[in-house]
Write a structure and sequence with these properties.
The complex is a heterodimer.
Chain A (H helix, E strand, L loop, with lengths): L1 H9 L10 H33 L3 H13 L2 H10 L14 H25 L3 H9 L4 H34 L9 H9 L3 H29 L1 H13 L1
Helix pairs in contact in A: 1-9, 2-5, 2-7, 3-5, 4-5, 5-7, 6-7, 7-9, 8-9
Chain B lengths: L8 H4 L6 H6 L1 H35 L1 H16 L2 H12 L3 H25 L3 H9 L4 H32 L10 H11 L2 H29 L2 H4 L2
The chains are: A mainly alpha, B mainly alpha.
Chain lengths: 235, 227
């Protein structure tokens, strides 16, 4: 079994061509990155603003609960058979647009909830002190709230990334693009080694993305340097 | 005006909402919902049965805790379709494949919440219990676990709701409950079936969530006065 998986993965012909692993991997990566960027651009500013004004907390927090309850599979199907259709969409492949919209929808809840909660939970005393020093609202947000909230905001983006990668895999169930196609193709042809090989690639891809995201999260946190400097000064 | 005698117009037009579908396919809908329900319940319970002892060991030992938290992060990162597929060589096309996969996902949520719930018990309360002569076991059962119930139930609700949604992906090994109806509808583009299965799936998640909330209210009556 493992031998079959190994020989499948090391056979170059399985990687090349328009239905090869490489083509599906590029599709999936392209889908993941595009939808994550769209979700961040669409979801982050309103969530941060709502957090700053402390409005709509109930909505911002519950959007995640709703997101969890809705099956990805059902949404993909409804979108693919609905008005968006399952035609080829540029480099995203068959049912590309429906998949892209579904991915954005499922990336939004963790981004919105984390960004809102992150800003709301910034110590009110610190924010009031910044206002007392004469900072305007924009300055309070950009110099005080955002740096302090950054880590939790980035965690939300990382959760969204994992969610998007998983959703993109499920797209294959509705004959959409992406690496899930390797898995569904294996099932359709009763080739268990192909199923397992596809699953391994998807899983390794997910773990790699998570690892990279964790590194970015750590180095992009503006408070990290500040904490290190405080630690050095007090040592 | 029906194109074919006796065939309702909504079948002919392939409408999303078709009341006749709900009556004509009632047995299929009931069977799928029942399968969905038991797969969900068994998976979450299995996750809980593993999560509680794991959390109990992890809270005594920092090294175990970091291993548990790290391992659960890894499991949670693996997409469901891949996880079910990776289990396929071991458990084959059986409900066990889906249940193990779903139980692993609920485990990742539950172990964190059980841990957080137990760690959230105030130290004074532990001291007081020890002072009146509670043994470790008795304190766990009579003091710590009851106080952790709200956080544990919060985890159960999240785990249950996401398990209901994820169970649909189990249709890849033919045990996806309502997901089976969805996968069948991929081939023939039967919109009424997709709509019905999706609605039932979300409804099931809502009902189970509400049920767990009620259970929590019943078993922790003291939290109601604290508000």
């Amino acid at each position: 079994m493992l031998g079959d998986v190994f020989s499948y993965l090391t056979d170059g012909s399985n990687w090349s061509g328009s239905t090869g692993i490489a083509a599906f991997a590029i599709q999936q990566l392209l889908l993941t990155v595009t939808s994550l960027v769209i979700a961040v651009v669409v979801g982050l500013p309103p969530a941060l603003y709502l957090g700053h004004r402390r409005w709509g907390g109930f909505l911002a927090v519950n959007v995640s609960n709703v997101g969890r309850a809705v099956p990805v599979f059902a949404v993909l199907l409804v979108l693919a058979l609905g008005p968006i259709g399952s035609e080829k969409f540029g480099p995203f492949g068959r049912a590309g647009l429906a998949t892209l919209v579904a991915l954005v929808l499922f990336a939004l809840p963790p981004i919105i909830t984390n960004a809102y909660v992150a800003v709301v939970e910034v110590d009110r005393g610190v924010v009031e002190a910044a206002r007392g020093m004469g900072m305007g609202e924009a300055k309070v947000f950009s110099s005080v709230e955002l740096p302090l909230a950054m880590r939790v905001v980035l965690t939300g983006v990382r959760l969204a990334l994992v969610q998007v990668w998983a959703t993109a895999t499920i797209a294959a169930l509705v004959a959409g693009p992406g690496l899930g196609r390797v898995i569904t193709r294996g099932f359709a042809n009763h080739r268990t080694y192909e199923v397992v090989a596809g699953a391994m690639i998807v899983a390794v891809g997910a773990l790699l993305l998570e690892g990279v995201a964790m590194l970015v999260e750590r180095y992009a946190d503006p408070m990290r340097r500040a904490r290190r400097e405080i630690a050095r000064a007090s040592a | 005006m029906a194109l074919v005698d006796g065939v309702p117009q909504c079948y002919v037009d392939n409408d999303w909402i078709c009341t006749r579908y709900w009556t004509d396919y009632r047995p299929e809908l009931v069977d799928a919902s029942v399968e969905h329900l038991w797969i969900t319940v068994i998976s979450v319970l299995a996750g809980l049965v593993v999560a509680v002892p794991l959390a109990l060991v992890a809270r005594r030992n920092a090294a175990v805790e970091s291993v548990v938290v790290g391992a659960t992060t890894i499991i949670y990162t693996i997409p469901s379709l891949a996880l079910f597929s990776l289990l396929l060589p071991f458990t084959g096309l059986s409900p066990t494949t889906v249940i193990i996969g779903l139980a692993l996902y609920s485990l990742t949520i539950l172990v964190r919440n059980v841990l957080a719930g137990l760690q959230g018990v105030p130290e004074e309360i532990r001291e007081a219990a020890r002072g009146v002569g509670y043994s470790d076991t008795r304190m766990l059962l009579k003091v710590e676990l009851p106080l952790a119930v709200p956080v544990i139930v919060a985890g159960l609700r999240v785990a249950t709701v996401s398990t209901v949604a994820l169970a649909t992906v189990g249709s890849i090994v033919s045990y996806g409950g309502l997901g089976n109806l969805l996968l069948l509808a991929v081939g023939n583009q039967f919109k009424a079936q997709i709509f019905a299965a999706s609605v039932l799936c979300v409804a099931l998640a809502g009902i189970l969530d509400l049920g767990l909330l009620l259970v929590q209210r019943l078993v922790t009556p003291w939290t109601r006065h604290a508000r």
